[in-house]
Write a structure and sequence with these properties.
CATH class of the largest domain: Alpha Beta
Distance between the termini: 22 Å
Protein name: N-carbamoyl-L-amino acid hydrolase
Strand content: 15-25%
Shape: elongated
Family: Belongs to the peptidase M20A family.
Radius of gyration: 24 Å
InterPro entries: Amidase_Cbmase (IPR010158), Bact_exopeptidase_dim_dom (IPR036264), Peptidase_M20 (IPR002933), Peptidase_M20_dimer (IPR011650)
CATH superfamily of the largest domain: Zn peptidases
Organism: Cyphellophora attinorum
Strand order of the largest sheet: 1-2-4-3-5
Keywords: Hydrolase
Mean pLDDT: 94
Structural class: alpha/beta
Amino acid sequence: MGSVATPMTPGLSPAYAALKTNAARLNATLEYSCQWGATPDGGMNRLSANDDDKRVRDWFVAETAKCGCVHKVDSMGNIFAIRPGQNNDLPPIGLGSHLDTQPTGGKYDGILGVLCAMEVLSTVHEARVTTYAPLAVVNWTNEEGARFPPAMLGSGVWAGQFTLEHGQTRQSVTGETMKQELERIGYLGSTPCSNTDNPLSAHFEVHIEQGTILDGAEQPVGIIRGAQSVRWYRLVVTGRAEHTGGTPMDKRSDSLLVAAQMIVNVNEVALRRNFRATVSTARSDPVSMNTIAGKVELSLDLRAPTDQDMEELESELKQAFSSISAKHGTEFSMDIVWDSRATYFDEQMVDCVRQAAISQGCEHEMMSYIGHDS
């Protein structure tokens, strides 16, 4: 999509211009870190605050200490590995992502961002460079939300999007709370989880695309200007559970039939608007071969370029769902369970990334369709 011709930010000073990260070391370190939670198929299963998460956290603290870092662990378990700079009264410049994964996650989602930050740290340390401001490599807690929904919980509390009480009381499906498990693994820290009490000057995050746009453009790196609006919903369709043989077709209130038509509608609207919309899970009740489903729960994931686009998308889908439900004599509810507004990154920070990417022959600019800690 092109780039801005005139840079907003000055070029690198001679002290930094010659620095090069070590790609082979980065890859080897990443592979080493993935021993905790590795699955037989080459993927990852390292849920937040489980035993493997403790092991990789311990390793992260030990490795970053070798580069002269001191560590802060906050009350949500976020770890800040801070290498002092020339002006330590300034808040650190943060680089990082997350080390927790989905139950069937990959080696690069989140992990790459933390390991890239560690490689920057190693490169600076080897060159004996003292940066103007401190550097902080950050491992954010429970970004995935796979064990303790919602996603981006640790960074969300730090950013003021969730209260500390909300963050610490999130429960797993087996009943443990976030606070209990952080305490169990030794990462319930004393530093306040707050961007005012423990601020950063900036935060940069490397992340895999998790899509095909860059592959189609034959570009290894994209310059991200911001993140799209994302909303998650819980849909419940309620009909009547009746016998499949005893209930005539025109007398039914079939919640599964209504849910199926809603799913088709979601796909049609998303294709027409060129947005992302997905019904990702469905659960019917009762689960019986000869019983019409009386209740269906759906998980709906919507993504749109702007908050206004999201409002319009939600409105159109609600109207369609209401019509489909009424036609078949069912009732439905549509509740928001997570709402992440569209975010546009600081232009000077974007321009720093832009200059670095252009120097490597990469000019593709895009919005992120996926939520991240940054």
